[in-house]
Specification:
- This protein is α/β, with parallel strands linked by helices and 508 residues long.
- The chain has 2 domains: 347 residues, 3-Layer(aba) Sandwich (Alkaline Phosphatase, subunit A), CATH 3.40.720; 76 residues, Arylsulfatase, C-terminal domain (2-Layer Sandwich), CATH 3.30.1120.10.
- The chain is 22% helix and 17% strand.
- The protein contains 10 helices and 18 strands.
- The chain has a 10-stranded mixed β-sheet, sandwiched between helices.
- A hairpin with a 2-residue loop joins strand 8 and strand 9.
- Helix 5 runs parallel beside helix 6.
- It is globular and about 65 Å long.
Length: 508
Protein backbone atom coordinates (compact mmCIF):
# COMPACT_ATOMS: atom_id res chain seq x y z
CA UNK A 1 0.00 0.00 0.00
CA UNK A 2 1.32 3.46 -0.92
CA UNK A 3 2.05 5.80 2.02
CA UNK A 4 -0.66 8.29 0.92
CA UNK A 5 -3.27 5.51 0.64
CA UNK A 6 -2.24 4.14 4.03
CA UNK A 7 -2.68 7.55 5.65
CA UNK A 8 -6.07 7.98 3.99
CA UNK A 9 -7.17 4.58 5.26
CA UNK A 10 -6.13 5.39 8.82
CA UNK A 11 -7.85 8.76 8.71
CA UNK A 12 -10.97 7.19 7.21
CA UNK A 13 -11.15 4.56 9.94
CA UNK A 14 -10.73 7.24 12.58
CA UNK A 15 -13.48 9.32 10.97
CA UNK A 16 -15.88 6.41 10.81
CA UNK A 17 -15.11 5.46 14.39
CA UNK A 18 -16.01 8.89 15.72
CA UNK A 19 -19.05 9.61 13.54
CA UNK A 20 -21.50 9.21 16.41
CA UNK A 21 -19.54 11.79 18.40
CA UNK A 22 -19.41 14.36 15.60
CA UNK A 23 -22.96 14.99 14.41
CA UNK A 24 -21.87 17.96 12.33
CA UNK A 25 -19.25 16.03 10.38
CA UNK A 26 -20.61 14.52 7.16
CA UNK A 27 -19.08 11.28 5.98
CA UNK A 28 -18.88 12.64 2.43
CA UNK A 29 -19.21 16.07 0.81
CA UNK A 30 -20.28 16.69 -2.78
CA UNK A 31 -20.27 20.23 -4.15
CA UNK A 32 -22.00 20.66 -7.50
CA UNK A 33 -21.06 23.98 -9.08
CA UNK A 34 -23.07 25.10 -12.11
CA UNK A 35 -21.74 27.63 -14.59
CA UNK A 36 -23.81 30.75 -15.34
CA UNK A 37 -26.90 29.08 -13.83
CA UNK A 38 -29.23 31.86 -12.73
CA UNK A 39 -31.37 31.71 -9.62
CA UNK A 40 -34.46 31.80 -11.87
CA UNK A 41 -33.26 28.98 -14.13
CA UNK A 42 -34.38 26.22 -11.75
CA UNK A 43 -37.83 24.97 -10.91
CA UNK A 44 -37.24 25.17 -7.17
CA UNK A 45 -36.69 28.92 -7.57
CA UNK A 46 -39.73 29.48 -9.75
CA UNK A 47 -38.82 28.43 -13.30
CA UNK A 48 -41.74 26.93 -15.22
CA UNK A 49 -40.56 26.72 -18.84
CA UNK A 50 -37.76 24.26 -18.10
CA UNK A 51 -38.11 21.19 -15.89
CA UNK A 52 -35.37 20.50 -13.33
CA UNK A 53 -36.73 17.53 -11.34
CA UNK A 54 -33.39 16.39 -9.93
CA UNK A 55 -32.38 19.81 -8.67
CA UNK A 56 -35.90 20.30 -7.35
CA UNK A 57 -35.63 17.01 -5.47
CA UNK A 58 -32.39 18.20 -3.91
CA UNK A 59 -34.16 21.39 -2.80
CA UNK A 60 -37.20 19.51 -1.55
CA UNK A 61 -35.10 17.13 0.56
CA UNK A 62 -32.73 19.80 1.86
CA UNK A 63 -32.40 23.49 2.61
CA UNK A 64 -33.07 26.03 -0.12
CA UNK A 65 -31.42 29.36 0.58
CA UNK A 66 -33.03 32.51 -0.79
CA UNK A 67 -29.99 34.70 -0.06
CA UNK A 68 -27.06 32.54 -1.20
CA UNK A 69 -24.21 34.40 -2.89
CA UNK A 70 -21.19 33.88 -5.06
CA UNK A 71 -18.58 36.51 -4.25
CA UNK A 72 -18.35 37.74 -7.82
CA UNK A 73 -20.38 38.09 -10.98
CA UNK A 74 -17.88 36.19 -13.13
CA UNK A 75 -16.30 32.76 -13.04
CA UNK A 76 -12.59 32.93 -12.15
CA UNK A 77 -12.95 35.24 -9.14
CA UNK A 78 -15.87 33.25 -7.70
CA UNK A 79 -13.94 29.99 -8.01
CA UNK A 80 -10.88 31.58 -6.44
CA UNK A 81 -12.92 32.70 -3.42
CA UNK A 82 -14.64 29.33 -3.10
CA UNK A 83 -11.39 27.37 -2.90
CA UNK A 84 -9.22 29.91 -1.06
CA UNK A 85 -11.62 31.58 1.37
CA UNK A 86 -10.31 34.97 0.23
CA UNK A 87 -12.09 37.76 -1.63
CA UNK A 88 -10.66 37.79 -5.17
CA UNK A 89 -10.45 41.57 -5.36
CA UNK A 90 -7.66 41.42 -2.77
CA UNK A 91 -5.39 39.69 -5.29
CA UNK A 92 -3.98 40.73 -8.64
CA UNK A 93 -4.62 38.34 -11.50
CA UNK A 94 -8.00 37.00 -10.40
CA UNK A 95 -10.01 38.37 -13.31
CA UNK A 96 -11.36 36.05 -16.03
CA UNK A 97 -8.32 34.04 -17.10
CA UNK A 98 -7.25 32.90 -20.56
CA UNK A 99 -6.72 29.19 -21.06
CA UNK A 100 -2.94 29.42 -20.83
CA UNK A 101 -2.78 31.37 -17.55
CA UNK A 102 -0.60 30.25 -14.64
CA UNK A 103 -2.11 28.90 -11.44
CA UNK A 104 -3.40 31.73 -9.22
CA UNK A 105 -4.00 29.70 -6.04
CA UNK A 106 -1.50 30.41 -3.24
CA UNK A 107 -0.03 27.01 -2.42
CA UNK A 108 1.35 28.23 0.91
CA UNK A 109 -2.17 28.54 2.32
CA UNK A 110 -4.86 25.99 3.10
CA UNK A 111 -7.43 25.47 0.38
CA UNK A 112 -10.82 23.82 0.62
CA UNK A 113 -9.49 20.50 -0.76
CA UNK A 114 -6.17 20.54 1.11
CA UNK A 115 -7.98 21.14 4.39
CA UNK A 116 -10.39 18.28 3.74
CA UNK A 117 -7.54 16.04 2.62
CA UNK A 118 -5.86 16.71 5.95
CA UNK A 119 -9.13 15.79 7.67
CA UNK A 120 -9.10 12.36 6.03
CA UNK A 121 -11.22 12.87 2.94
CA UNK A 122 -10.13 11.68 -0.50
CA UNK A 123 -10.54 14.74 -2.68
CA UNK A 124 -11.46 15.04 -6.34
CA UNK A 125 -12.33 17.76 -8.84
CA UNK A 126 -14.14 17.10 -12.10
CA UNK A 127 -15.13 19.70 -14.66
CA UNK A 128 -14.31 23.34 -15.20
CA UNK A 129 -11.19 24.66 -13.46
CA UNK A 130 -10.41 28.18 -14.79
CA UNK A 131 -7.85 28.98 -12.09
CA UNK A 132 -4.74 28.56 -14.17
CA UNK A 133 -2.19 25.79 -14.68
CA UNK A 134 1.57 25.77 -14.38
CA UNK A 135 3.99 28.09 -12.63
CA UNK A 136 3.97 31.87 -12.85
CA UNK A 137 6.53 33.32 -15.20
CA UNK A 138 6.85 30.19 -17.31
CA UNK A 139 5.27 29.18 -20.61
CA UNK A 140 3.16 26.09 -20.17
CA UNK A 141 4.15 23.09 -22.29
CA UNK A 142 0.95 21.12 -22.79
CA UNK A 143 2.90 18.13 -24.11
CA UNK A 144 4.60 17.39 -20.79
CA UNK A 145 3.41 16.77 -17.25
CA UNK A 146 1.60 19.93 -16.12
CA UNK A 147 2.55 21.24 -12.69
CA UNK A 148 1.28 22.84 -10.60
CA UNK A 149 -2.27 21.77 -11.41
CA UNK A 150 -5.35 21.09 -9.23
CA UNK A 151 -3.51 18.18 -7.60
CA UNK A 152 -1.01 20.57 -6.03
CA UNK A 153 -3.85 22.60 -4.51
CA UNK A 154 -5.11 19.61 -2.53
CA UNK A 155 -6.98 17.35 -4.93
CA UNK A 156 -6.02 13.66 -4.99
CA UNK A 157 -7.66 13.36 -8.39
CA UNK A 158 -8.49 15.87 -11.11
CA UNK A 159 -10.18 15.66 -14.50
CA UNK A 160 -10.70 19.15 -15.84
CA UNK A 161 -10.91 21.58 -18.68
CA UNK A 162 -8.31 24.31 -18.26
CA UNK A 163 -10.60 27.29 -18.66
CA UNK A 164 -13.99 27.48 -20.39
CA UNK A 165 -15.66 25.78 -23.33
CA UNK A 166 -15.23 28.91 -25.43
CA UNK A 167 -11.48 29.19 -24.78
CA UNK A 168 -8.61 27.11 -26.10
CA UNK A 169 -7.13 24.61 -25.58
CA UNK A 170 -10.17 22.40 -26.15
CA UNK A 171 -8.78 19.35 -24.36
CA UNK A 172 -9.20 17.61 -21.02
CA UNK A 173 -6.44 17.36 -18.43
CA UNK A 174 -6.41 14.36 -16.09
CA UNK A 175 -4.16 14.89 -13.11
CA UNK A 176 -1.00 16.25 -14.77
CA UNK A 177 -1.50 15.29 -18.41
CA UNK A 178 -3.61 16.15 -21.43
CA UNK A 179 -5.93 13.21 -22.11
CA UNK A 180 -5.45 11.32 -25.38
CA UNK A 181 -2.58 13.47 -26.64
CA UNK A 182 -0.50 12.00 -29.46
CA UNK A 183 3.20 12.87 -28.93
CA UNK A 184 3.67 13.04 -32.69
CA UNK A 185 1.07 15.83 -32.90
CA UNK A 186 2.20 18.33 -30.23
CA UNK A 187 -0.27 20.86 -28.88
CA UNK A 188 0.54 24.57 -28.95
CA UNK A 189 -1.51 27.51 -27.64
CA UNK A 190 -1.32 31.23 -28.39
CA UNK A 191 -3.80 33.92 -27.39
CA UNK A 192 -2.36 36.55 -29.71
CA UNK A 193 -1.20 35.02 -32.96
CA UNK A 194 -2.97 32.52 -35.22
CA UNK A 195 -1.27 29.38 -36.45
CA UNK A 196 -0.90 29.16 -40.25
CA UNK A 197 -3.13 26.60 -41.91
CA UNK A 198 -5.66 26.32 -39.06
CA UNK A 199 -9.34 27.23 -39.40
CA UNK A 200 -10.22 30.78 -38.38
CA UNK A 201 -13.59 31.97 -37.06
CA UNK A 202 -13.58 35.05 -39.30
CA UNK A 203 -12.34 33.77 -42.65
CA UNK A 204 -14.03 30.39 -42.22
CA UNK A 205 -17.22 31.73 -40.68
CA UNK A 206 -19.49 30.20 -43.30
CA UNK A 207 -18.41 26.71 -42.25
CA UNK A 208 -19.34 27.09 -38.57
CA UNK A 209 -22.12 24.91 -37.17
CA UNK A 210 -22.73 27.55 -34.46
CA UNK A 211 -22.11 31.14 -35.51
CA UNK A 212 -20.70 33.76 -33.16
CA UNK A 213 -22.46 37.01 -32.28
CA UNK A 214 -19.41 38.71 -30.80
CA UNK A 215 -15.88 37.52 -30.14
CA UNK A 216 -15.34 33.75 -30.30
CA UNK A 217 -13.92 34.04 -33.77
CA UNK A 218 -10.34 32.85 -33.44
CA UNK A 219 -9.59 29.11 -33.49
CA UNK A 220 -12.32 26.78 -34.76
CA UNK A 221 -12.81 23.46 -32.97
CA UNK A 222 -15.69 21.07 -33.61
CA UNK A 223 -17.20 23.65 -35.98
CA UNK A 224 -17.34 26.33 -33.26
CA UNK A 225 -15.27 29.50 -32.96
CA UNK A 226 -13.27 30.00 -29.76
CA UNK A 227 -11.21 32.60 -27.92
CA UNK A 228 -7.51 32.09 -28.59
CA UNK A 229 -5.58 30.02 -31.10
CA UNK A 230 -4.13 26.56 -30.96
CA UNK A 231 -2.76 23.88 -33.20
CA UNK A 232 -2.01 20.19 -32.93
CA UNK A 233 -3.42 17.78 -30.36
CA UNK A 234 -6.15 16.67 -32.78
CA UNK A 235 -6.65 13.32 -31.04
CA UNK A 236 -7.17 15.06 -27.69
CA UNK A 237 -9.79 17.61 -28.77
CA UNK A 238 -13.12 17.35 -27.03
CA UNK A 239 -16.51 17.09 -28.68
CA UNK A 240 -18.82 19.63 -27.09
CA UNK A 241 -21.90 17.43 -27.46
CA UNK A 242 -20.25 14.79 -25.25
CA UNK A 243 -18.85 17.11 -22.58
CA UNK A 244 -21.60 16.69 -19.99
CA UNK A 245 -21.50 12.91 -20.44
CA UNK A 246 -17.72 12.90 -20.06
CA UNK A 247 -17.64 15.03 -16.93
CA UNK A 248 -20.62 13.29 -15.33
CA UNK A 249 -19.10 9.86 -15.93
CA UNK A 250 -15.84 10.94 -14.28
CA UNK A 251 -17.77 12.32 -11.30
CA UNK A 252 -19.73 9.09 -10.96
CA UNK A 253 -16.57 7.03 -11.37
CA UNK A 254 -14.92 8.98 -8.56
CA UNK A 255 -17.81 8.25 -6.21
CA UNK A 256 -17.80 4.57 -7.23
CA UNK A 257 -14.06 4.33 -6.65
CA UNK A 258 -14.03 6.12 -3.29
CA UNK A 259 -17.34 4.92 -1.87
CA UNK A 260 -15.77 2.85 0.92
CA UNK A 261 -14.12 5.78 2.68
CA UNK A 262 -14.89 9.50 3.12
CA UNK A 263 -14.55 11.68 0.05
CA UNK A 264 -14.99 15.25 -1.15
CA UNK A 265 -16.05 15.76 -4.76
CA UNK A 266 -16.03 19.18 -6.41
CA UNK A 267 -18.15 18.65 -9.53
CA UNK A 268 -17.90 21.85 -11.57
CA UNK A 269 -20.10 21.42 -14.63
CA UNK A 270 -19.61 23.26 -17.89
CA UNK A 271 -23.37 23.66 -18.32
CA UNK A 272 -24.82 26.16 -18.94
CA UNK A 273 -21.85 28.24 -20.14
CA UNK A 274 -21.35 29.03 -23.83
CA UNK A 275 -20.99 27.45 -26.26
CA UNK A 276 -24.23 25.70 -25.38
CA UNK A 277 -24.06 22.46 -27.32
CA UNK A 278 -26.03 19.88 -25.35
CA UNK A 279 -26.05 16.22 -26.26
CA UNK A 280 -28.59 15.21 -28.88
CA UNK A 281 -30.65 13.54 -26.10
CA UNK A 282 -31.51 17.01 -24.77
CA UNK A 283 -31.92 18.96 -28.00
CA UNK A 284 -35.47 20.30 -28.17
CA UNK A 285 -36.29 19.24 -24.60
CA UNK A 286 -37.38 22.71 -23.50
CA UNK A 287 -38.47 24.77 -26.46
CA UNK A 288 -36.00 27.43 -25.29
CA UNK A 289 -33.17 26.51 -27.63
CA UNK A 290 -29.69 25.41 -26.57
CA UNK A 291 -29.67 27.46 -23.36
CA UNK A 292 -32.83 25.83 -22.06
CA UNK A 293 -31.70 22.41 -23.24
CA UNK A 294 -28.38 22.90 -21.44
CA UNK A 295 -30.33 23.53 -18.22
CA UNK A 296 -32.08 20.19 -18.74
CA UNK A 297 -28.68 18.57 -19.32
CA UNK A 298 -27.33 20.14 -16.13
CA UNK A 299 -30.28 18.70 -14.23
CA UNK A 300 -29.54 15.26 -15.70
CA UNK A 301 -25.95 15.47 -14.43
CA UNK A 302 -27.26 16.27 -10.96
CA UNK A 303 -29.57 13.27 -11.18
CA UNK A 304 -26.73 10.92 -12.07
CA UNK A 305 -24.80 11.99 -8.98
CA UNK A 306 -27.86 11.58 -6.76
CA UNK A 307 -28.56 8.14 -8.21
CA UNK A 308 -24.97 7.00 -7.62
CA UNK A 309 -25.04 8.09 -4.00
CA UNK A 310 -28.34 6.29 -3.55
CA UNK A 311 -27.09 3.14 -5.28
CA UNK A 312 -24.28 2.77 -2.74
CA UNK A 313 -26.27 3.73 0.33
CA UNK A 314 -24.43 7.04 0.72
CA UNK A 315 -27.38 9.44 0.54
CA UNK A 316 -28.15 9.64 4.25
CA UNK A 317 -24.72 10.73 5.41
CA UNK A 318 -23.52 12.78 2.45
CA UNK A 319 -23.71 16.55 2.49
CA UNK A 320 -24.47 17.57 -1.08
CA UNK A 321 -24.49 21.22 -2.03
CA UNK A 322 -25.43 22.93 -5.28
CA UNK A 323 -24.68 26.47 -6.37
CA UNK A 324 -23.45 28.50 -9.34
CA UNK A 325 -20.37 30.62 -9.98
CA UNK A 326 -22.38 33.72 -10.95
CA UNK A 327 -25.69 34.84 -12.32
CA UNK A 328 -27.18 34.27 -15.78
CA UNK A 329 -26.30 35.70 -19.16
CA UNK A 330 -28.36 35.28 -22.31
CA UNK A 331 -26.30 36.24 -25.38
CA UNK A 332 -22.71 35.62 -24.31
CA UNK A 333 -21.16 35.47 -27.73
CA UNK A 334 -22.94 32.88 -29.89
CA UNK A 335 -26.05 32.90 -32.05
CA UNK A 336 -27.79 30.14 -30.12
CA UNK A 337 -31.36 31.53 -30.08
CA UNK A 338 -31.10 32.20 -26.35
CA UNK A 339 -32.64 35.66 -26.78
CA UNK A 340 -35.23 34.74 -29.39
CA UNK A 341 -36.56 31.75 -27.45
CA UNK A 342 -36.36 33.17 -23.93
CA UNK A 343 -40.06 33.99 -23.82
CA UNK A 344 -41.31 34.74 -20.31
CA UNK A 345 -38.51 32.78 -18.63
CA UNK A 346 -36.68 34.96 -16.11
CA UNK A 347 -33.14 33.62 -15.50
CA UNK A 348 -32.53 36.12 -12.71
CA UNK A 349 -35.98 35.60 -11.18
CA UNK A 350 -37.21 38.88 -9.68
CA UNK A 351 -33.72 40.34 -9.48
CA UNK A 352 -32.03 42.89 -11.70
CA UNK A 353 -28.83 42.39 -13.70
CA UNK A 354 -26.97 39.13 -14.26
CA UNK A 355 -23.47 37.94 -15.04
CA UNK A 356 -21.03 40.92 -15.00
CA UNK A 357 -23.37 42.93 -12.74
CA UNK A 358 -23.37 44.28 -9.18
CA UNK A 359 -27.13 44.17 -9.15
CA UNK A 360 -28.50 41.17 -7.23
CA UNK A 361 -28.84 38.75 -10.16
CA UNK A 362 -25.08 38.96 -10.70
CA UNK A 363 -24.14 37.21 -7.47
CA UNK A 364 -27.33 35.99 -5.78
CA UNK A 365 -27.36 32.41 -7.03
CA UNK A 366 -28.97 29.02 -6.38
CA UNK A 367 -27.76 27.68 -3.04
CA UNK A 368 -28.95 24.27 -1.84
CA UNK A 369 -27.76 21.95 0.94
CA UNK A 370 -29.01 18.41 1.56
CA UNK A 371 -27.82 16.07 4.29
CA UNK A 372 -30.71 13.78 5.34
CA UNK A 373 -29.01 12.58 8.53
CA UNK A 374 -28.62 16.12 9.82
CA UNK A 375 -30.40 18.84 7.83
CA UNK A 376 -34.16 19.25 8.06
CA UNK A 377 -35.80 20.20 4.74
CA UNK A 378 -37.00 23.77 4.41
CA UNK A 379 -36.28 27.26 3.18
CA UNK A 380 -33.80 29.64 4.78
CA UNK A 381 -33.50 33.39 4.33
CA UNK A 382 -30.08 33.44 6.05
CA UNK A 383 -27.40 35.28 4.08
CA UNK A 384 -24.67 32.80 3.10
CA UNK A 385 -21.68 33.17 0.81
CA UNK A 386 -19.47 30.70 -1.04
CA UNK A 387 -16.38 32.33 0.46
CA UNK A 388 -17.45 30.82 3.80
CA UNK A 389 -17.39 27.18 2.72
CA UNK A 390 -13.73 26.74 3.63
CA UNK A 391 -14.13 27.88 7.24
CA UNK A 392 -17.50 26.15 7.54
CA UNK A 393 -16.26 22.79 6.29
CA UNK A 394 -13.15 23.16 8.45
CA UNK A 395 -15.35 23.57 11.51
CA UNK A 396 -17.42 20.55 10.52
CA UNK A 397 -14.29 18.46 9.97
CA UNK A 398 -12.63 19.57 13.20
CA UNK A 399 -9.77 21.33 11.43
CA UNK A 400 -8.07 24.48 12.69
CA UNK A 401 -7.14 27.06 10.09
CA UNK A 402 -3.84 28.89 10.27
CA UNK A 403 -3.75 32.65 10.75
CA UNK A 404 -2.88 33.22 7.09
CA UNK A 405 -5.51 30.82 5.79
CA UNK A 406 -8.94 31.76 4.43
CA UNK A 407 -8.75 35.44 5.46
CA UNK A 408 -12.38 36.18 4.55
CA UNK A 409 -14.11 32.89 5.34
CA UNK A 410 -16.51 32.70 8.28
CA UNK A 411 -17.92 29.65 10.03
CA UNK A 412 -21.55 29.45 8.91
CA UNK A 413 -22.20 25.91 10.15
CA UNK A 414 -25.35 26.82 12.09
CA UNK A 415 -26.93 28.56 9.09
CA UNK A 416 -25.84 25.93 6.58
CA UNK A 417 -27.28 23.10 8.65
CA UNK A 418 -30.48 24.97 9.37
CA UNK A 419 -29.86 25.35 13.11
CA UNK A 420 -30.07 29.12 12.78
CA UNK A 421 -31.91 31.50 10.49
CA UNK A 422 -29.16 34.03 11.05
CA UNK A 423 -26.28 33.98 8.61
CA UNK A 424 -23.89 36.72 7.63
CA UNK A 425 -24.31 40.29 8.85
CA UNK A 426 -23.24 41.53 5.43
CA UNK A 427 -22.31 40.30 1.96
CA UNK A 428 -19.84 41.98 -0.40
CA UNK A 429 -20.78 41.72 -4.07
CA UNK A 430 -18.13 42.16 -6.75
CA UNK A 431 -17.88 42.89 -10.44
CA UNK A 432 -14.85 45.13 -11.05
CA UNK A 433 -16.14 47.45 -8.31
CA UNK A 434 -17.91 46.52 -5.06
CA UNK A 435 -21.34 46.62 -3.46
CA UNK A 436 -22.41 45.90 0.10
CA UNK A 437 -25.57 44.25 1.32
CA UNK A 438 -26.19 44.75 5.04
CA UNK A 439 -29.48 43.34 6.24
CA UNK A 440 -32.02 44.47 3.66
CA UNK A 441 -30.02 47.50 2.60
CA UNK A 442 -27.90 47.35 -0.55
CA UNK A 443 -25.24 49.99 -1.25
CA UNK A 444 -23.48 50.15 -4.63
CA UNK A 445 -20.38 52.30 -4.73
CA UNK A 446 -20.06 54.78 -7.61
CA UNK A 447 -18.21 53.87 -10.79
CA UNK A 448 -17.72 57.22 -12.55
CA UNK A 449 -17.50 56.96 -16.30
CA UNK A 450 -17.98 53.20 -16.38
CA UNK A 451 -20.41 51.50 -18.74
CA UNK A 452 -23.96 51.17 -17.31
CA UNK A 453 -24.39 48.14 -19.59
CA UNK A 454 -21.95 45.36 -20.38
CA UNK A 455 -21.03 45.95 -24.01
CA UNK A 456 -22.46 43.35 -26.39
CA UNK A 457 -24.32 41.25 -23.78
CA UNK A 458 -26.55 44.14 -22.72
CA UNK A 459 -26.36 43.21 -19.04
CA UNK A 460 -27.02 46.07 -16.63
CA UNK A 461 -23.75 46.42 -14.73
CA UNK A 462 -25.04 48.73 -11.94
CA UNK A 463 -22.25 51.16 -12.82
CA UNK A 464 -23.26 54.79 -12.25
CA UNK A 465 -21.61 58.10 -11.42
CA UNK A 466 -23.50 58.39 -8.13
CA UNK A 467 -24.00 56.19 -5.07
CA UNK A 468 -26.96 53.81 -5.11
CA UNK A 469 -28.97 52.55 -2.15
CA UNK A 470 -31.83 50.08 -2.33
CA UNK A 471 -34.17 48.66 0.29
CA UNK A 472 -34.39 45.01 -0.78
CA UNK A 473 -37.23 44.28 1.62
CA UNK A 474 -39.64 46.12 -0.65
CA UNK A 475 -37.57 46.55 -3.79
CA UNK A 476 -35.88 43.23 -4.62
CA UNK A 477 -35.57 44.39 -8.23
CA UNK A 478 -33.45 47.41 -7.22
CA UNK A 479 -35.61 49.87 -9.15
CA UNK A 480 -35.80 52.72 -6.63
CA UNK A 481 -32.51 54.38 -5.69
CA UNK A 482 -33.22 55.93 -2.27
CA UNK A 483 -29.70 57.21 -1.62
CA UNK A 484 -30.78 60.85 -1.53
CA UNK A 485 -33.35 60.13 1.19
CA UNK A 486 -30.89 58.19 3.38
CA UNK A 487 -27.65 60.14 3.18
CA UNK A 488 -26.45 59.01 6.63
CA UNK A 489 -26.93 55.35 5.76
CA UNK A 490 -25.13 55.78 2.46
CA UNK A 491 -22.20 57.40 4.24
CA UNK A 492 -22.05 54.71 6.92
CA UNK A 493 -22.17 51.86 4.41
CA UNK A 494 -19.60 53.52 2.16
CA UNK A 495 -17.24 53.87 5.12
CA UNK A 496 -17.81 50.26 6.14
CA UNK A 497 -17.19 48.97 2.63
CA UNK A 498 -13.99 51.01 2.30
CA UNK A 499 -12.80 49.74 5.68
CA UNK A 500 -13.48 46.11 4.75
CA UNK A 501 -11.72 46.60 1.44
CA UNK A 502 -8.60 48.06 3.04
CA UNK A 503 -8.38 45.52 5.84
CA UNK A 504 -6.18 42.49 5.07
CA UNK A 505 -8.84 40.08 6.37
CA UNK A 506 -12.37 39.87 7.69
CA UNK A 507 -12.13 36.51 9.46
CA UNK A 508 -11.73 37.08 13.21
Amino acid sequence: MKPRSFLISLASLALLACTSFAADRPRNIVLIYGDDVGIGDLGCYGATRVATPNVDRLAREGLRFTSGYATSATCTPSRFALLSGEYPWRREGTKILPGDAALIIDLSRATLPSMLMKAGYTTGVVGKWHLGLGAKGGKLDWNKAISPCPNETGFDYSFIMAATGDRVPCVYVENHNVVGLDPSDPLRVDYNNPFPGELDGVKDRASLKMDWSHGHNMAVVNGIGRIGYFTGGKSAQWKDEDMADTFTKRAVDFIEREKDHPFFLFFATHDIHVPRVPNQRFVGKTGMGPRGDAIAEFDWSVGEVLATLEKHGLTQDTLIMLSSDNGPVIDDGYKDQSVEKLGDHKPGAQFRGGKYSRFEAGTRVPFLARWPARVKPGVSDAMVSQVDLLATFAAMAGQKLGDADAPDSLDMTAALLGDSTHGREYVIEHSQRLALREGNWKYIEPAPGAEPFKPLTGTETANANESQLYDLSGDAGEKMNVASAHADRVKAMAVKLATLQKSPRTRP
